[in-house]
Amino acid sequence: MTERFKNQNAPFSVEWTHRLRFTTNAFSGNSPLTDIISELNPVKIIVFIDDGVLNTNPSIKPSIREWAKQTNVSCCDTISIAGGEHAKNSFEEVKKILKAINDNKLCRKSCILVIGGGAVLDAVGFAASIAHRGIPLVRMPSTTLSACDSGLGVKNGMNYFGKKNFLGMFDPPYAVINDLSLLQTLEKRHWIAGLSEAVKVSLIKDRSLFENIESVQKELLARDASSMNEIVAESARLHMNHITNSGDPFEKLEIRPLDFGHWSAHKLEQLTNYAITHGEAVAIGVALDTTCSKLLGHLDGEICSRIVSLLQSLELPTMHSELRNEDLLHGLDEFREHIGGQLTLLMLKDIGKSIEIHELDSKIIRQAIDELM
Hints:
Blueprint: E1 20-23, H1 32-40, E2 45-50, H2 51-56, H3 60-70, E3 75-81, H4 86-89, H5 92-103, E4 111-116, H6 118-130, E5 137-141, H7 144-148, E6 155-160, E7 163-170, E8 175-179, H8 188-193, H9 195-205, H10 207-215, H11 217-221, H12 225-245, H13 262-271, H14 278-295, H15 301-313, H16 330-339, E9 345-350, E10 353-357, H17 362-372
Parallel strand pairs: 1-8, 2-3, 2-4, 4-5, 5-8
Antiparallel strand pairs: 6-7, 9-10
């Protein structure tokens, strides 16, 4: 065979910088958002906003227009997107997003700014990834959950076949702008729900964060902005450090530490027809896997009680009637399918310390449910 027909391997890598910025006034002339947009230098920008954010922040549209005018940004439109899991459960909103991208003639040198909760970030991110094979995306999370966890992710997803995030891809946002002032208008349910992800990451990564949450739990319930901002910022840092420093940003390995408690959480969302939020489902899932850790002999009983008690003290749910639904156990198979390979779960050995397991007996799960109930 001649030289030109020889098989070849040609490895290559792509360098990427994950950018996280904090502010309390994103639409001021000298904000981190302005700096990011200046660095990106897009031909034009289109803005998609969670309708829940619009309802509680009626001045945000005029603020965006004024910001664009002051900074000479070509902002072609500001479009409302239905918030909540609806955004991910059908293609209605994605089609709306794609139509706006097409109608406004965005190109790969343009930019999409999305402001909203995790589901809206996912839906807009999915559309941004497939339009022209990728338009730069800047995320501005508007909930405690998206600000401390999902907004930092380098992926997007849509629910399909009744399965959480069955569709989607790994496509990092150009930047994440955490405007903490957006959290102040959240109703109490959503103000609290995101704390489940902060507790989760503290359990697998950082005991000091867990203890910090314990120490300010009353302030968090009283909507103290300073306490919440500190917890959100530290949780975001831990999530970002895992994504960028774990050696597995695109989840090629079989273990996903940041999904502790999520196998049951994702299934519970489906079984309740999304009547519970993702954050509430995660709280229940964390309580379940923490109790399983104890029953498997990995975790001291007093520490287990301490963890579940913190979730309950934060007024997060740790049980639901659908835990008794036999279909809950299908969540294990769906979780394994989603990551590929053998089932790999984290169980706790201590706060900040974990162990990997590759099977979880249904009897242990049912016993844990009995205890939580």
